[in-house]
Amino acid sequence: MRKAKVPLSDKTPAPRRLKSPDWRYVYVSKLLDEWREPRKEDDSYVRGLFDLMKKIRQAPVDEVEAYKDEHPDVADAMMMFEHGPAYRTDVDTRILAGYSYSEVASVVGHRAEVIEQYVKCFFDVQDNLGNHGYINRWVIEPTLRSAPFSTEAMWKRMAVFGGRKMLEALERCSEHQLQSMFETVFNNLVLSKGIQAANGVTPNARNAVELIGLAKDNINERKKIEALAGPQKEEDGFASQVVSVMLKSFTYGLMTQNSMPADPLRAGTDDAKMLALYGDNPPRFVENQHKGKMDGQ
Questions:
Q1: pLDDT tens profile 18-63
Q2: Domain extents in the chain
Q3: What is the largest CA-CA distance in the chain?
Q4: Which among 10, 84, 87, 233 would be 20 to 30 A from 283, CA to CA?
């Protein structure tokens, strides 16, 4: 029986799948959970991580430590990953800014081989550094959801949008300058959420809780700055005013979600309706000392 010869030269290759930065770690964890072995086509990074994690899960402690001594690169990479974002932020941000393995190693004090193992197994983003949608979806957004006012969130955003020059400029800043920059970034974040609220984000309890959390975090950051540099002369409570407006807007939406009349704050109606809704505590953010001057122009 003759075998059919199928020409494959003109076939369109399958599109490359987008994977999460830690796809090798997720894949190896699933293999171990299902008691399976790596496939023949799996690369050396998958196999090295699989052998280490299998030892950690199944072998006695002395065997695990002996294996780590024999394979220090993947073992140190695993340790870097397990120590949390505060420990590995220096590596992540510089990879996002396009640093080489040896350059990152000189910054954090590890060998270049350790940085390579860490990136390939836990932060594999190098092939997608030019894809801002991918970086935003897999790197920036998860950080902003879990810790919007963290050092990790600030440095990663600076690395993505400012690149190497921005990181080098930040390294030369004093602690007080960094704290002031933190406050500016946080105020802009809160203000952007205020703009979303003012343009009709659907009000619900979850949004209100998120805003309360933002206000609390912002107050804590203000206390840190004042502890380092004393009272600040900047306009006090700007972010708190924005949050106040948003909370009252969302509260109004929750109270009137069945009838949904126009919110006086958004509609710009007369003072009587404003007084009926907000009482003797109107949002300071909407007060404008130049209102009469602007109306007369």
A1: 789 999 999 999 999 999 999 999 999 999 999 999 999 999 999 9
A2: 23-168, 175-296
A3: 95
A4: 233
pLDDT in tens, 208-260: 666 667 667 767 767 776 776 666 655 555 555 655 655 565 555 555 555 54
At position 132, the amino acid (one-letter code) is: H
Beta strands in 67-218 (DSSP E): none
Structure-token pair, residue 259:
């009838």
- As a residue count, the chain comes to 297
Cβ atoms of 170 and 93 closer than 8 Å? no
Tell me the pLDDT tens digit for each residue of 69-126: 999 999 999 999 998 777 788 999 999 999 999 999 999 989 999 999 999 999 999 9
Range 182-185 contact pairs with CB under 8 angstroms and sequence separation of 24 or more: 182/149, 182/154, 182/221, 182/225, 183/221, 183/222, 183/225, 185/154, 185/157
- Integer Cα distance of 290 and 98 in angstroms: 48
In this structure, what DSSP letter does residue 139 have?
I
Asked whether 152 and 84 are in contact (CB, 8 A), the reply is no
Exposure of 276 in the CB half-sphere (CA atoms within 13 A) = 7
215-250: buried (b, 16+ CB within 10 Å) or exposed (e) per residue? bebbeebbeebeeeeeeeeeeeebbbbbbbbbbbbb
Q: Do the Cβ atoms of 96 and 139 come closer than 8 Å?
A: yes
Q: Is the overall model pTM greater than 0.70, yes or no?
A: no
Q: Average pLDDT, whole number, for the chain?
A: 76
**CA gap 141, 147 in Å, rounded:** 10
How many Cα atoms within 13 Å fall on the side-chain side of residue 286? 19
Task: Tell which phi-psi region holds residue 200, choosing left (phi > 0), alpha (psi between -120 and 50) or beta.
Answer: left
